[in-house]
User: Fold these one by one.
Assistant:
Number 1:
Amino acid sequence: MLKLLLTFVTLTLPFLAHSFSPDHPTDRRVLVLLDDLAVKSSHSLFFKTLQSRGFDLDFKLADDPKIALQRYGQYNYDALILFSPTVDRFGGSIDLAAILDFVDSGHDLIIAADTNASDLIRQISVECGVDFDEDPSAMVIDHTSYAVSDNEGDHTLIASDDFIMSDVILGSKKIEAPVLFKGIGHTINPENSLVLKVLSASPSAYSANPKSKLSSPPSLTGSSISLVSVVQARNNARVLISGSSSMFSDRFFRSKVQKAGRPDKHEKSANEQFVTELSKWVFHERGHLKAVNVRHHKVGEIDEPAIYRINDDVEYSVEIYEWHGKSWEPYVADDVQVQFYMMSPYVLKTISTDKKGHYFTAFKVPDIYGVFQFKVEYNRLGYTSVALSKQIPVRPFRHNEYERFIPAAYPYYGATFTMMAGFFVFTAVHLYNK
């Protein structure tokens, strides 16, 4: 029995040590599924950047019959990288439903498709809100924003610099050089507001078969074509979808680049910087928020009451921090709001901050009694959402808590005493006047 227990601890300890933790979002174990183990060498620079940042990569062939995302109801991995665009069926217990459940459980996913992308990879992308070109032979072609080379060919090697304007997603350091891209384009499902285009094609681009003449207008054209997109689900799981697996390759990382029509030549493409910074966001090394120490109490008091009374003066505070790869740093913003909510917000206030992560405000409880909630629902581009809720009842005044004389009622008091005095005067005059 003791031997079995020791064996179980030995097998499960590595998974527990690398499991996702809200306090250490980047302590993760990543499963990498490949079409061919040669990809491990051809894309080694990308994998090394992940390993240098503390990620434990587990490389498997996509059709390995022994692979599994979970064991005994617990996930073995916290992120999944699919560098297997041609796979028609995964091995083991992994399938479309398993991958979608993996994301629905709050885990992260990177998908690198290509011109030979299988229906399975396309289906996974569709479920994430991205639609690849239906033509299996189509590629993104651009006759004005292609990368200049000795053999320009069909202009399918794109030099793109149309990035999303977000420091939290792509980092604060400006990307100077274009990104090399060769693959298939996709569009974003307009009904899915959670998908963002990170790298877009130029207005002159289109998607078609480069080896044949156009017989009809292409279905994907211009800036509507997305080359790289990201998704942040409502459970804060993050997904990266790229139409080019070559974009992650060592060859593209090291290539020189010159965009057509521009005189400046770059000794190195921006692929490495772009992919590295984007992977930091996908794996929650940036833009990951947590809220702690949520407190509320009456002004002048410390303890949180079980119930408030109408018109009480209340103070509310919360601390918000952002993960910066190695430690939690204070999150500073001026757009965090709190609601005092019952069916609809009766109070909506922007919370002040001391720029050290502490947010605070004060307000008066409305003259309405019932069951209220303190609610903070913070959603900002590139950041994980913060949703806080604390329920608290509000009672009316007791019979002995009302003021003896209400200032607003002074006119009525005056009218009452005036009528009484007038009645006595009238009575005296009527009785004693002859």
Number 2:
Amino acid sequence: MEEILQINAFCSYVESHSTAIAKKPRATSPISLKFSWQTLYNGVDCGIFVMCHMETFKGTSVREWDCGLSPERDIKGEVMQVQSKELRDLRIKYLSKIFLSDGNSFRSTLEKEIHEYANLSEDERIENAKTAKEMIERRLSEE
């Protein structure tokens, strides 16, 4: 059902640009592809996966495509930490590009805050991290 909603949303967008092109996706059936880097329990990094896929897919066949991410689990089904590190690194990469983009109207404010943070002592950084974690936990509990 969710796949149908996604197709309808996509087709509605495409129809606003070209009615002829929108007919083709509506007439197709969705296929769920399997990837070696596919996850079972990661429901928070969808945007990172999309960005990685858009960055690495070069029009080859899906069987030949490798986005560069390691599998989430080993042969025994045990969770490996390699993919988590890779996703963290991609998160940093994409956020840095967005934050430091010339199109970001808050860029100068962010650069100022980065320089202020760099001048903090180690104790101040640890206290900031604790405060940020508490704020995040409080916001999540309010949802």
Number 3:
Amino acid sequence: MPDVAHLFVKLRRANKAAKVESSSGDEPLTHEMVGRGLNPKQGSLRVTDTYIVAGGVNAKCLLRATRNSLMEVAEFVHAESEEAGLYDEQWSITISPKHISRGNEKGFKVTIHYSACPKASSMRRDPHVPVALDRAKGVPGLMTILQYDQDR
């Protein structure tokens, strides 16, 4: 009987330690259609979003939401121009199991770090899509966002 209890403790620790991590890569990326920034001296924008979700994690959806919040800042910074955009983008996402009190649903804490440089676009429009979106790993299931916090 003690062996069974020991097995349950090991399984619980293994489940708690399971994380899903993904990123855009080691170097910042820029969409080809955006091109380079017009003002290289301008600093980068950084944001860290934390989501508590239930059911599953749609990482691509959460990355789009985080990037959209950076686009709003870029549009504010370049209010005089018709179009704003982002270049030298880089993101990382960490998904950790989190206990929630919603029946038998799985809970997750999702932390997204996103950085990019704002630019005033010339003739090219920003695609409004995170770079390297195909690298985002999620958790299957219907995602329900329970809590959202943003740290700039």
